[in-house]
Structure prediction request, 63 residues.
Amino acid sequence: MKKVFLTLLVLISLQSQASAETKADSLSNVQLEEVVVSATRAGENTPLSYTNIGEAELKNNNT
Prediction:
């Protein structure tokens, strides 16, 4: 009888711990908008204006 009582006590204790409310994440959650990137191949003789963007400029724009 003691074993049954002890087992029930342990199960109830575990259930209450499992159903306890968890803490909210301390990191902020930021929702970003969708970005669509499209490309057109352009050579030197193509009648389009274009700009080559390097890695440094991309990093600078993203910070």
About this structure: The first helix runs from residue 2 to 18. The chain is about 40% helix and 0% strand. The helical segments are 2-18, 55-61. The mean pLDDT is 79.
